[in-house]
Amino acid sequence: MNNRAIAELVFHLGRIASGEGLEEKLTPAQWAVLRYFALANRFSRTPSAFAAFHSTTRGTASQTIKSLETQGYLSRMRSENDKRSVQLVLTEKASGILANDPFESLVRAAEVLPQSIRNQFANTLQRMLGHVAQERGKPPFGTCTSCQHLESCDDNKDEQTPYACGFTREPLTVEELNEVCFNFVSGKPS
Ligand code: SF4
User: Fold this and answer.
1) pLDDT tens for residues 27-40?
2) What radius of gyration, in Å, describes the C-alpha atoms of the chain?
3) Separation of 20 CA from ligand 1 center, angstroms?
4) Closest by alpha carbon to 16, among 88, 83, 84, 101?
5) 8-12, 18-22, 115-119: lowest mean pLDDT where?
6) Which domains does the chain have, with CATH numbers?
7) pLDDT at 43 over 50
8) Mutation probe of ligand 1 site: the residue of 141, 149, 173 with most atoms within 8 A of C-beta
9) Using CA positions, which residue lies closest to atom 1 of ligand 1?
10) Ligand 1 atom at shortest distance from the alpha carbon of 150
11) pTM of the entire predicted model
12) Residues 6 or more apart from 185 whose CB is under 8 A from it?
């Protein structure tokens, strides 16, 4: 398969899952926001991180987020560690409609792949994303499992988790290792 055909397949996968068959009266941009906040880790649940992820302006991102807050799909929560910072979180109403999101068909398509293929595929897509992000001057985003900042803290018996983020200096739960992060730096193989 040639390079252009691979790029077209990747683009087509995203396109068919991005807007077709959406039942709720939300725009594709509003769906993109909900999907992002369902994936993002606690360091990345901000309007500016979403704007970077979706390659849109902060103003446009803020307007879309505001409309979702007004409709009861997103709410604001103060960070436990830094009371000055605010995170956006999905409400139960949002989680309910995301269960019927056409994007879930992509998730199921990934689920039927054998684990070894899934890992290879994830690495391949992460590399492609890194190239495109670098060329376009965008943050690459990614998950802790392949991030340079992921640290193991096996020797720290007080921590409830054996992992920590070297960038934020905070412990990480196992569940958080698979959440998408704005501060990601490609480095460790997953
Ligand atoms: S280890 Fe990397 S991906 Fe994980 S929270 Fe830290 S900066 Fe983000």
Assistant:
1) 888 989 999 999 99
2) 17
3) 32
4) 101
5) 18-22
6) 3-105 (1.10.10.10), 118-178 (no CATH)
7) yes
8) 149
9) 150
10) 1
11) 0.80
12) 140, 147, 148, 149, 167
